[in-house]
Write a structure and sequence with these properties.
Layout lengths: L3 E6 L4 H15 L3 E8 L15 H16 L4 E6 L9 H15 L3 E4 L9 H19 L6 E6 L2 H5 L3 H4 L12 E4 L4 H8 L6 H13 L7 E8 L14
Parallel strand pairs: 1-2, 1-4, 2-3, 4-5
Antiparallel strand pairs: 5-7, 6-7
Helix pairs in contact: 1-2, 1-7, 2-7, 3-4
Amino acid sequence: MSSTILLVFAHPDDETSAAGGTTAKYVSLGYTVDLVTATGGEKGTRLGVPEGVETATARAAEQRAAAAITGIRDIYRLGYIDNELEEADLTEVTDKVMGVMEKVQPEVVITFGPDGISGHPDHVAIGKAATTAFKKAFKRGSGLRKLYYVAIPESVFASVNQVEVGDVITCPDDEITVAIDISVFFETKLRALEKYRSQEDARWLVDMLRQAGESSWAGKEFLHLAYPRHSEKETDLFKRE
């Protein structure tokens, strides 16, 4: 039985923009990757979506297409409304995430940290729920080993056009636990992101990553180990202590 990574994010496309290369890399190594998506992305852009087709329906189809490219096995949708997750009952959201953890039995969980990368309330809310669920499941001895937060190092942000990027909350370089080399899977990540045709942000990110190139910062994805905490740098998510 292969070890499993569980991605826990707020919107369709979060999983690909934040961890698409990591997903493809670990799937290629024989690991299983599953995904929790909290909302349907209902309030996002509708580029090219025909009249009569709901935004959430279009976004779900795009997510399935992207997941097929990166290799995600199963998608668990929590059913919350885009931009309303912070108003949901945190205990309820946490319980739903924990239910998936108990079913999937992952060793590694990847989610947003307290800053949500951009400060988006949905990002912050799902990160909080995933963290609480992880801690509860970890104490029960369910097999969970590590909780990672996606991060953007300060040095990376300093090297891009900050006006174009917009609101981003960075992480000090020395707090980055692992930089996943995704250069071999760079095009895979872009092809998956391109499936989000209706999402303006995804189109913009594809263009920015292509301009940066796989040999630059764009050829890596960065994670901060939240639990259990230690100062040692890692080269692999499944490194044994």
